[in-house]
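User: Some background: our group keeps a shared notebook of sequences we're curious about, and every so often someone picks one and asks for a predicted structure to add to the entry. Today it's my turn. The entry only has the sequence so far, pasted here. Could you supply the structure so I can complete it?
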Amino acid sequence: MALLEQWIWLAICVPFAALLGWVIGRRGGEQSSGNQVSKLSTTYFRGLNYLLNEQPDKAIELFLHVAELDKDTFETQIALGHLFRRRGEVDRAIRLHQAMAQRSDISDTQKVQALSALGEDYMRAGLLDRAETVFNDLTQLDQRAPQAFKHLIAIYQSERDWEKAIENAARYEQATGEPMGKLIGQFECELADRLRANGDGEGARQAIARAYAADPTAVRAGILEGRLEAEAGNAQAAIRALERAARHDPDFLPVILPNLLACYDQAGERTGARAFLSAMCEHYRGIAPVLALAGMLETEEGVGAARRYLAEQLKDRPSVRGEAALIDLSLADRSDPETTLHDLKLVTDQLLVRNPSYRCNRCGFGARSHHWQCPSCKEWGSVKPLLNYAVV
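Assistant: Of course. Here's the predicted structure to add to the notebook entry:
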């Protein structure tokens, strides 16, 4: 833990020290002689020495002293305010940046920089209303408007003000050209969820349509649309929305399938359900569509057919959930215990081969064989057997 704290302090001090060194060098060029520059330089190098000797507290105090000595330099004062904020002294940072923003002898660019730092101070202090005011003012200034938009998006997300979050995400995209469609799609879905919960189905549908416009492959919009249509009794429309969502990103299939299967049952579309699940088995390597098909086979053709199908599928995609389902089917079938044990042995062997037997307790790297030096983080002696692995 002590080592981690030292690295944190170094991460704070080193950028500040580098900036002070640049300032001192610049001022030294302007005033090659003078007690002030000499005093700053001496203090700066003492601070660096403390850093190199792993004495960050002393280094911080010296760097603060350097900034106090050089009150006329804008850059050092900004860096001092950042250091106050990182140390948790947000009140001091706010007072410093407020005073800098009110100075009449700084350029417009420097004023924007001071206001931006002040807005970040307010955010750190949890004064979101003040931060919002500062960043809204900054959006009127082209130099830092994109960064101000990003801060406003973060504020409105925390306040769950989705309309304003959407507005500022769109303004950020317009200012920078950076695509924000996926984020806007999520915000529209949040809005749709709220409208649906309040009984405003039409408003929710409009928000979902806007989510699709922002992100045509929005999986969440499809899930919400399917849920909304299912609640309205439109099973076919719900099926179309949920199938589209699954095709856009099959990784969400375990989330989508329960509602989709219920809609298939409601619409009496068992043939369509089997065709869709079969197609998903080709594109999705997870076990969810296989288990769903096994369940349908159990209903239509009996436990034996379902057990045989699942055992065959698990040879190519071993899964703990699949193995548990196979055990359940085998207990219900009881027709061929020897074959059942053979199938379970194959699945278990596959799982053992695919899962790591060792893991680095420093970086989390998983390995099937032991390494005295971790191949990932290069730490020695950190790769150890997992608790569920025994060497025989």
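Suggested note for the entry: The CA atoms of residues 10 and 45 lie 15 Å apart. The longest strand covers residues 358-360.
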